[in-house]
Amino acid sequence: MKNAFDDNPLSFVYTGYQDNGQWVGVDLEEEKQIKSIVFCPKTDKNDI
């Protein structure tokens, strides 16, 4: 799970679960205002 938030677009998270899909969550421990969410699909950075 450390790969989920390592700021490296070449790393990825694989949970091994396929039946109900995959998801990643984070416990912020207190109420926070989220200003943006960024999703980067799995890539090998070999694109234009």
Q: Could you walk me through the main structural features you see in this protein, from its secondary elements to its overall organization?
A:
- The model has no long low-confidence stretch (mean pLDDT 80).
- The radius of gyration is 13 Å and the shape is extended.
- It is largely without helices or strands.
- It has no helices and no strands.
- InterPro entries: Galactose-bd-like_sf.
Write the layout of secondary structure elements.
Layout: no helix or strand
Span from first to last CA? 28 Å
Which stretches of 5+ consecutive residues score pLDDT under 50?
A: none
What gyration radius follows from the Cα positions, in whole Å?
A: 13 Å
The percentage of residues in β strands lies in under 5%
Reported for the largest beta sheet, the result is: none
- Based on CA inertia axes, which overall geometry fits? extended
Number of strands: 0
Mean pLDDT: 80
Class computed from helices, strands and strand pairing: little secondary structure
Number of helices: 0
Q: Helix proportion of residues, in percent?
A: under 10%
List keywords for this structure.
Galactose-bd-like_sf, little secondary structure, F5/8 type C domain-containing protein, 48 residues
Brief sketch in words of this structure:
By secondary structure, the protein is largely without helices or strands.
